[in-house]
Design a protein that fits this description.
- The structure holds 2 protein chains of 2 kinds.
- Chain A folds into 3 domains: 5-52, 2-Layer Sandwich (Uridine Diphospho-n-acetylenolpyruvylglucosamine Reductase, domain 2), CATH 3.30.43; 61-170, Uridine Diphospho-n-acetylenolpyruvylglucosamine Reductase, domain 3, CATH 3.30.465; 176-276, Enolase-like, domain 1.
- Chain A is built from 12 helices and 14 strands.
- Chain A has helices at 12-21, 36-41, 76-80, 83-88, 90-97, 102-105, 110-116, 124-129, 147-150, 220-225, 233-246, 257-276, and strands spanning 5-7, 27-30, 49-52, 61-64, 67-71, 133-138, 141-146, 151-153, 156-157, 164-170, 176-181, 192-199, 204-210, 217-218.
- In chain A, strands 4-5-10-6-7 form a 5-stranded antiparallel β-sheet. Chain A has a 4-stranded antiparallel β-sheet with strand order 11-12-13-14. A 3-stranded parallel β-sheet of chain A has the order 1-3-2, with helices on one face.
- By secondary structure, chain B is α+β, with helices and mostly antiparallel strands.
- Chain B has 2 domains: 4-77, Ubiquitin-like (UB roll) (Roll); 80-157, [2Fe-2S]-binding domain (DNA polymerase, domain 1).
- The termini of chain B are far apart.
- Classes of the chains: A alpha+beta, B alpha+beta.
């Protein structure tokens, strides 16, 4: 394991300055540390300087009408225990609970999960179907990026030099679900996962799949098949077939391609049926 | 690299530690600087829960926590978990149920269950408590006795 210098700035401006001051390519940002420290321990990354965001005032959770804004440093466990999140963004609740264990979720954060952008992230698929925006601060000021553009590839994001994730915004409370398949329910990575949401204002479905390297993806054609309200059985069957066909998956050591294509349909079916009877979904 | 001073409250005592490197894990601070060997190193990758401690009353994995990230916070390890009535009840439940074999995972289980009961209330359903212990692994596979300890913890707390 490599030694590193740790700095813990107290304001966003100081944090950006600390990033600029660090040696390029050798400076890392740490939120909860539950993913970065694994890579440091395993020798996959060897930063000489680490900027900890723990002192920044970013452990917030705010509702503004239908919009939920989550500070990037809020522990996932706080998100999970918020009764409004569970009621109004049930898919986000499902996804948070899929991450590690409770003790891990007391440290892990939404900002860290996005910034690290692991290919099998359990949070990215649901953020995709919620049309989440990632709020960034950096040397040139603040900007927001849709999560679909923020996550570029495995471990690659749209973060510019010296930029930090301040918060994640979900613009609309949506009936939503996140279902996954793993060898073991806990402490494992999803072989495949499906996130589904229905937008009451846009009267449209969104579908995303996770556990498909290099990154979770939206399936707009599949979502369209589901129509603009409670889907018919035939529409659900078409969506299942479409998902199984279009998902960009291959075999790896976690599962075969055939198994994954089969599971996408099964999980999609369950997720849509769970949501179809919600009052926000018109018949 | 610079080694900084770290002030942290461990089991009710304020510890002022000099020369703590930035990359030092809380697990190593507890075991090697403070001699609190009850907290175990199992996998060191956040999978097994043997290193679970309480930080400001909630469970964290000390192997994946930087020591400096808990500066000025209150850490409770298994050695002092029974100072609290909930922790004491958990310890009794484990004793009464004979919920240990080799014992290596026991500190993690005891701290994790104590943290969960303090977070969710001592009337939390047994099912939620069992599910909440998914992050703790017992390599002896002695889960049946551990589940019995969880099931009887309410009696011990009454």
């Amino acid at each position: 394991m490599s030694p590193f210098e740790l700095v813990a700035p107290t304001t966003p401006e100081e944090a950006v300055a600390a990033l600029r001051a660090g040696p390029p390519g050798e400076t890392a940002v740490v939120a909860g540390g539950t993913d970065l420290l694994l890579d440091v321990e395993g020798g996959r990354t060897a930063p000489t300087r680490v900027v900890s965001l723990r002192r920044l005032p970013w452990r917030t959770l705010d509702w503004n009408g239908p919009t939920l804004t989550v500070g990037s440093m809020l522990p996932l466990r706080s998100l999970e225990l918020d009764p409004e999140v569970r009621a109004r963004m049930p898919g986000l609740y499902d996804a948070v609970r899929a991450v590690g264990s409770i003790a891990l979720r007391h440290r892990a954060t939404l900002g860290g999960n996005l910034g690290r952008s692991a290919p099998a992230s359990d949070l990215v698929p649901v953020l995709l179907v919620l049309d989440a925006e990632v709020d960034l601060v950096g040397p040139l000021g603040a900007r927001s990026v849709p999560v679909d553009q923020f996550v570029r590839a495995s471990r690659a994001t749209a973060l510019g030099p010296h930029e930090l994730i301040r918060s994640v915004r979900c613009p609309e409370a949506r009936p939503s679900a996140y279902l996954w398949q793993r060898v073991r329910p806990s402490n494992d990575i999803s072989q495949i996962a499906v996130a589904v949401a229905f937008s009451p204002s846009g009267r449209r479905w969104s579908v995303a799949v996770g556990g498909v390297p290099p990154r979770p993806v939206l399936l707009p054609e599949v979502a369209e098949t589901l129509g603009s309200g409670r889907p018919t059985d035939a529409a659900v069957r078409r969506a299942i077939a479409g998902a199984a066909r279009s998902v960009p998956i291959a075999a790896d050591r976690r599962a075969s391609e055939e198994y994954r294509r089969h599971l996408v349909g099964t999980l999609l079916d369950r997720a849509v049926r769970r949501l179809a009877t919600r009052p926000e979904v018109p018949a | 690299m610079t080694d900084a001073e770290l002030t942290v409250r461990v089991n009710g005592r304020t510890e002022r530690l000099a020369d703590v490197p930035g990359d030092e894990r809380l697990l190593d601070t507890l075991r090697w600087r403070l001699g609190l060997k009850g907290t175990k190193e199992g996998c060191r990758t956040g999978d097994c829960g043997a290193c679970t401690v309480l930080v400001d009353g909630v469970t964290v994995l000390s192997c994946l926590t930087l020591a400096h990230d808990v500066a000025d916070q209150a850490v409770t390890t298994v050695e002092h978990v029974a100072d609290d009535p909930v922790g004491a009840g958990v310890v009794r439940a484990f004793q009464q149920a004979g919920a240990l074999q080799c014992g290596y995972c026991t500190p993690g289980f005891v701290v994790a269950l104590t943290g969960l009961l303090k977070e969710r209330g001592t009337d939390a359903p047994t099912e939620e408590l069992l599910e909440g212990l998914q992050g703790n692994l017992c390599r002896c596979t002695g889960y049946a006795a551990i589940a019995r300890a969880v099931a009887r913890v309410r009696e011990e707390l009454a």
